[in-house]
């Protein structure tokens, strides 16, 4: 039987990287829920919609198709936006639209529908607490602010995404985490039954193996 695995945590803690590795090992599919908030923000920015106008953003979402492909690409209304949604302005805008309750309801419903069949590793901020409350394995992944800023910087360079320097990224991450942890609706927090993993001094292989071992009893 295929289970679902929930990975939550602050930005740039390594959630997506680990989820992808684990998917290869298990033959599961990665669902990056942050990409859905990023698509919402990107489209609102492009359409000139106020990111705090809940009615307008929700109305826009009604006519918005977001596709996450098994090979990790993100399509917004049929267009490949995999890289376009990774820019710094989109990151902050995604955190802003993610405060809106009805935006969350819309995207959470889509996520729950996608994960129905099992066999998914879903990463985000509210997966263990809201989206997949019954997930058999729940991880709360953290890393030191320094490690996270450095990772995000290296990732931007590697993927050819325009990037700020490490200090600016660290500040942006700090602001975004504060916003994500202090919002009214579904703030980022560790689910009571989640296992916390601090990845600061762990290799990708070590983190992947640690989560794999937690999943083994359910496979
Ligand atoms: O994981 P990410 O950095 O791509 O997510 C972008 C923003 O989207 C993040 O700052 C908060 C929001 N988000 C959320 O509120 N809930 C999720 N499940 C995933 C992301």
Number of strands: 8
Multimeric status of the protein: single chain
**Largest sheet, if any?**
5 strands, parallel
Continuous helix count: 9
Strand content: 5-15%
Question: How many structurally independent domains?
Answer: 1
| Overall helicity | 40-55%
Shape: globular
Unreliable segments (pLDDT under 50, ≥5 consecutive)?
A: none
Strand order within the widest sheet? 2-6-1-7-8
Bound molecules: 2'-deoxycytidine-5'-monophosphate
- Provide the structure class: alpha/beta
Evaluate the radius of gyration. Answer: 16 Å
The CATH class: Alpha Beta
CATH architecture: 3-Layer(aba) Sandwich
State the separation between the terminal residues, measured CA to CA. Answer: 7 Å
CATH superfamily: P-loop containing nucleotide triphosphate hydrolases
Average the pLDDT over all residues and give the rounded result: 96
How is this structure best described in words?
The chain is of the alpha/beta class and 219 residues long. The chain has a single domain, classed as P-loop containing nucleotide triphosphate hydrolases (Rossmann fold, 3-Layer(aba) Sandwich), CATH 3.40.50. Helices cover 50% and strands 15% of the residues. It has 9 helices and 8 strands. Strand 3 and strand 4 form a beta hairpin. The N and C termini lie close together (7 Å). Bound molecules: 2'-deoxycytidine-5'-monophosphate (DC). The site of 2'-deoxycytidine-5'-monophosphate (DC) has 14 residues, from helix 2, helix 4 and helix 8.
């Amino acid at each position: 039987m295929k289970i679902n695995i929930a990975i939550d945590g602050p930005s740039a803690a390594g959630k997506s990287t680990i989820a992808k590795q684990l998917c290869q090992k298990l033959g599961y599919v990665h669902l990056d829920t942050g990409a859905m908030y990023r698509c919402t923000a990107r489209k609102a920015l492009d359409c000139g919609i106020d990111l705090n106008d809940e009615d307008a953003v929700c109305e826009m979402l009604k006519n918005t198709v977001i596709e996450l492909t098994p090979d990790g690409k993100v399509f917004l209304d049929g267009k490949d936006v995999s890289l376009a949604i990774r820019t710094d302005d989109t990151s902050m805008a995604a955190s802003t639209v993610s405060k809106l309750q009805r935006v969350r309801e819309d995207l959470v419903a889509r996520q729950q529908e996608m994960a129905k069949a099992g066999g998914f590793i879903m990463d985000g901020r509210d997966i263990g607490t809201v989206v997949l409350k019954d997930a058999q394995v729940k991880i709360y992944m953290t890393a030191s602010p320094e490690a996270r800023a450095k990772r995000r910087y290296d990732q931007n360079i590697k993927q050819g995404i325009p990037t700020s320097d490490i200090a600016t990224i660290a500040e942006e991450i700090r602001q975004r985490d504060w916003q994500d942890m202090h919002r009214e609706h579904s703030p980022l927090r560790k689910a009571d039954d989640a296992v916390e993993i601090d990845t600061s001094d762990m290799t990708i292989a070590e983190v992947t193996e640690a989560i794999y071992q937690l999943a083994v009893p359910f496979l």
